[in-house]
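Why Aminopeptidase N? Reviewers of the renewal asked for a concrete example.
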Amino acid sequence: MSQSRQIKRLADYQAPAFLTHSIELEFVLDPAATQVTAISKISRQGAHQLPLMLDGHGFELLGIWLNNVPLTDYQQTDEQLVLSQLPDEFELKIVTQLNPAENTALEGLYLSGGAYCTQCEAEGFRRITYYQDRPDVLAVFTTHIIADGKSYPHLLSNGNLIADTLLANGQRRVSWFDPFPKPCYLFALVAGDFDELTDSYTTGSGREVALKFYVDKGNQQRAVFALESLKRAMLWDEQEFGLEYDLDIYMVVAVDFFNMGAMENKGLNVFNSKYVLANPQTATDVDYFNIESIIGHEYFHNWTGNRVTCRDWFQLSLKEGLTVFRDQQFSAAMGSPTLCRIDAIKTIRTAQFAEDAGPMAHPIRPEQVLEMNNFYTVTVYDKGAEVIRMQHTLLGQAGFRRGMDLYFQRFDGKAVTCDDFVQAMQDANERDFSQFRRWYQQAGTPQLRVTSAQDDALASFTLTLQQHTDATADGSPKLPLVLPVRLELISLDLSYRQQHLLVLTEERQSFVFEQVPANVRAVVLADFSAPVKLLQQISLDDLLFIAANASDGVARWDAMQQIWSDLVRQSVVAAHPVLIPASLLAMFRQLLDQPLDDLEFTAELLALPGFDTLAEQYPQIPVDSILDTLQSFRQQIASQLTAELTRCYQRLPRQPYQYQSMQVGIRKLQSLCLGYLAQAISATVISQKNAAADSDVITQLLQQHYLQADNMTDRQATLTAAVQAGLDLAQPLLLDLLEKDGHDPLIFDKWASLQVSLPTEKVFELIENIVNYPQFSWNNPNRVRAVFSAFSHYNPQQFHRADGRGYQLLASIVGKIDHSNPQLAARLVTPLLSWKRYDEARQLLIQQQLGQLRDQPGLSNDLFEKVARSLS
Ligand code: B3K
Ligand code: ZN
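Here is what the prediction returned.
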């Protein structure tokens, strides 16, 4: 199918010429020929004679009726239906026929396993019927689903159930009514045979809400944690923001074929099964964390996204940035604020900084788009959340809440803009946020340069902050931004400690602090209070001081990160890995012998930054130097601290698995120790002393850790350590995992991702083998991502091979997947887009692959937009 390559621009926004007030849908389900009847009540807006433009494609049009009279006078293009000379108010009936079984793009109505399900955001509803598929058209939906009740006992849609009848032909007809007007991207339908897990929740005002989770047969107990998370999220939103749920029922369906994590359809969330199903045998601690956070995220959308929605898709961050911020606050309240923040910072420093520095750079409110699905990005989501967080920081908790209250008071039931949000924050607090709004218009990562001067005679301390943002691929302006900078001043004897919130608004500003004792150390950008790259010259001793003494845990962790990134930089300059300084090893020794009470935090302090984080510090990424240096650092730590790592590992008690913070800390610290220890085996060349004996002990530790584990987290820890160190024991243990549990799709995915992280050339053979397993399917995004995203993101050694084999593999898969699932292909291609950041030889290799993709016949808009921007 040929697609028009029409770019849409924010500047061209026009209010809809017609509004659809209500729509009644009837689905007669059939795998290859589902019939959809849509009856809409529509009215003209204002005095004009414009035609009604309805979006739609990928189905057969069976008929149109205007006020019950067949309509034949219309124009049909590839993607639109144009109706002219309409009355001011009318009823339109449209009948279409679709083929869910052949819908491998997983947008619109499709089959996942044996179940029907829908995905309409951003523009999937137009694959179901002709409609005004734009978020500022809000209608009341009634949905009737007709299907064989035996094969599809659960027939679900948005809102409340209003009827369930048996038809004369033996089929069932189930009807749902959603009283809240909504854009069509929030429409959902699910039909299937599931296990059901039910519960209820009573809201603060005493309304009882039925909670229902639908999962594949046999998986009911694996949804318990998600259900409990939902109840925690409902309570938290009431306590934190005074927001209650509004329908009688809240449903979550877990499906195996899904393009992303989950979808917040009103009253009927559809989830990737990966983010619902959990038990200790199948899910890791990280999975549990993600489930709670995504369940929260989708629930929070009920207010930030559904009750108040976006005027147009350029405003996506209005709902996504805000909802990510809300889910981060929720996770922080359920666990450790510091660890949640570290998690969020890693996402920004890797993927988001990379996006800002690459061809797809865009502001959190993009200004032009070819394929909207390409803009569900870390910029819109995660940088968007940072922009909300800065407003929270500037206004304080109470001020932010005042702004939120005003936002809902003004805009409940409306489709609005990011500007409307900022205006509410501003008005509720009588602040001027006009300069702050630049965050919505400018792409790019600001660099924040810090210098300081101390005047002992005057007892003053001066901190100078300077901001600069490099040009980005989208050409957006680069004016000075409002940067909230959290600062702590600490004297070396710890007797003086002061915290400040500085607000940098100019390009360069100095802040003077009086009555400051001599020799204070400055902790700048505590809590990562603005999404910037911090440039500061600071000695190893001072960084170690901050890592030990800053009040803010995030700043302590960050000081460790800076130590490592400084050492990597020195190694890159020296063209060989430097030796780890003794003072740093001493600190490791101390933390391993006497871990802090918070073991998970201890593990973060002892972890090296990843390849991606380090890479973002260089305009041109010295791939080989970074990889060699990281490998050398791991091995130096392993060989010099073998005894301490072993002791630390052995002292930590193991208990029957519970997802509980003390235990999560134990598992994480043990996993960190095993990761280094596994490297000690391959590093025996460095430390000759007792090398063979050490190797045996470590091999045994690793084996026991796997064999005695009663949970997936520990098993995965051994396997990761062994695969990454290239140890022989990895393969038999991986085989064990596959044979015992590989029938479960989520475990198969874990097994596959572990295999493809093997940092040697053998990985290519493994990949060929994995895709031939019966569990693998090219049509299932989870399976494809488990192999190919894992390979390109977690195996930098092989992905960035100098002979280009890694690039070639990824490009060939992207080209193949584009025919069946363009959204998935466009996500997978991301690591190839930033080819300009690599050395000349790698640039040529990647460019060649991208060139071939660009010339592929029938290339989707999704892939075209990214590849073309990358090559331009
Ligand atoms: N709103 C959905 C994402 C839809 C992605 C469409 N390509 C999930 C979320 O952010 O909650
Ligand atoms: Zn979201």
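The longest helix spans residues 378-411. This is the kind of structural detail the renewal will allow us to pursue systematically.
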